[in-house]
Amino acid sequence: MKLYTKTICPKCLWVKSELQRAGLEAEMINIDQDEQAKQKIIEAGFFSVPVLEFEGKLIGDVKAVISQIELIAQ
């Protein structure tokens, strides 16, 4: 599981805290520091973060990301 984030991103902090609360770990990828990752999510049609990559699927809607975290944690 990977979480694409930016340096300053309140929604990213929220998702990170939800991951922590659920006891889950994800590889954090800061697109401000990784141009290749930034291009990957742009090419996938996302123009904002956070974007969660889980089982090869990219999820960009924050509510859908939180829902996915809850499902994984069960």
Radius of gyration over all CA atoms, rounded: 11 Å
Helical amount among residues, as a percent range? 40-55%
Judged by helices, strands and strand pairing, the structural class is: alpha+beta
Number of domains: 1
Enumerate the strands of the largest sheet in spatial order, edge to edge or round the barrel.
2-1-3-4
Q: The CATH topology is what? A: Glutaredoxin
CATH hierarchy: architecture: 3-Layer(aba) Sandwich
CATH class descriptor? Alpha Beta
Topology, number of strands: 4
Question: What can you see in these coordinates?
Answer:
The structure is a single chain. The protein is of the alpha+beta class. The protein has a single domain, classed as 3-Layer(aba) Sandwich (Glutaredoxin), CATH 3.40.30. The chain contains 3 helices and 4 strands; from the N terminus they run βαβαββα. Helix 1 (10-21) packs parallel to helix 3 (62-73). The protein is globular and about 35 Å long. The mean pLDDT is 95.
Write the SSE topology.
Elements: E1 2-5, H1 10-21, E2 27-30, H2 35-43, E3 51-54, E4 57-59, H3 62-73
Parallel strand pairs: 1-2
Antiparallel strand pairs: 1-3, 3-4
Please summarize what this structure is.
This protein is α+β, with helices and mostly antiparallel strands and 74 residues long.
